[in-house]
Amino acid sequence: MEKTTSAEAYLQKHQKRYKELETLRNILKNSELQETIKWGCPTYTINGKNVVGFAAFKEHIALWFYNGALLKDKYKVLINAQEGKTKALRQWRFTAGEEMEEDKIRQYVEEAIANQKQGKEIKPEKKELTIPPELLQKLQEDKNFHEKFNTLTPYKQREYAEYIQEAKREATRYSRLEKIIPLILEGKGLHDKYR
């Protein structure tokens, strides 16, 4: 998969939704936000902090606000796309260009910018790292693997541990362990290829 390097390249990849994506991009570019690419999608920041981003999906376009839970949402358009997992992120979904009311979108973007400037943000909860038995056994058996695992960020360590833990069957947990060993030895995170 070719890595997206600019917002324009992202729009070009999504010709079917080009016009709607361009509308969102123009609104965001005409604000004080800085345009960048994160996780393969156009993302807009202020003072290095993520504020808003957008992406095209098969059935809709999503405009997401990184601290959207703090927005007033006076038009009741924001949703939590991952109930129970996501605390701060909120999405506004559009299935057609006619649904995009630029004035309303600007209001939400301006409020998100103001919140970020004021330092309002929802901090992620610190999760304890629970190492599943299959991974723990491998860490105890292989010193090099253990050292490489310890060089990973806590986020990446937790990502791998949860990946194994989520499997219901023991055979699946072991097959997932075998899959991640080379990634850990290379110092990569589970989902780095998407970032």
TrEMBL record:
Entry-linked Gene3D superfamilies: 3.90.1150.200
Domain YdhG-like: 19-113
InterPro entries on file: YdeI_bac, YdhG-like
Superkingdom assignment: Bacteria
Protein name: YdeI/OmpD-associated family protein
The species this protein was found in: Sinomicrobium weinanense
